[in-house]
Amino acid sequence: MSTPLITADLVAVDLDATDRDDATRQLIELLTAAGRVTDADGFHADVRAREAQMATGMPGGVGLPHARSAHVVEPSLAVGKLRQGVDWGAPDGPARLVFLIAAPDGAHGDHLKILAALARRLIHESFRTSLLEASDPATVADIVSREVVVS
């Protein structure tokens, strides 16, 4: 991947969302504004279809929506820190951190590599805490870029 997976413009540190669909939509808007998604509605439909298969809430207050889509230009990661937790279907309660993985159609390998690398870090409370304590988008993007190594 020649373009960074995440940049500060793909981070929302004070996301105010009513539910997981609203949070996802707001993160898709960041990806679209950055030129990484060509059709926000089309990509949103792809993410919703994936979420309908199985909720992507993870223990530790994390939502991990993801999809491969013809509307994605390059593998990307958008991150949202939610003001109020949102139910993402995790057994331990609402999510405060949301990671939206966007991968181009046919990029099965990239999609799974990003998902695996992120999941390996998310099991560590110290990683989640550092993100929750980060006060600005650049710090969040820096932490994720440093910690989530996609090989």
Automatic annotation (TrEMBL):
The protein's matches in Gene3D superfamilies, at most eight in alphabetical order, are given as: Mannitol-specific EII, Chain A
**Coiled-coil residues:** none
CDD domains linked: PTS_IIA_fru
Gene Ontology MF terms in the entry: protein-N(PI)-phosphohistidine-sugar phosphotransferase activity
Sorted alphabetically, the keyword list is: Phosphoprotein, Phosphotransferase system, Sugar transport, Transferase, Transport
GO BP terms: namely:
phosphoenolpyruvate-dependent sugar phosphotransferase system
Compartment list: Cytoplasm
Keyword Phosphoprotein found: yes
Q: Domain of life, per the record?
A: Bacteria
The answer to keyword Transport applying to this record is yes
- How far does the signal peptide extend, from start to end residue? none
Q: Mind telling me which GO cellular component terms the entry cites?
A: cytoplasm; membrane
Positions of the PTS EIIA type-2 domain: 4-147
Q: Which InterPro entries match?
A: PTrfase/Anion_transptr, PTS_EIIA_type-2_dom, PTS_IIA_fruc, PTS_SugarTrans_NitroReg
- Indicate what this protein is called per its UniProt record: PTS fructose transporter subunit IIA
Q: Which organism is it from?
A: Cellulomonas aerilata
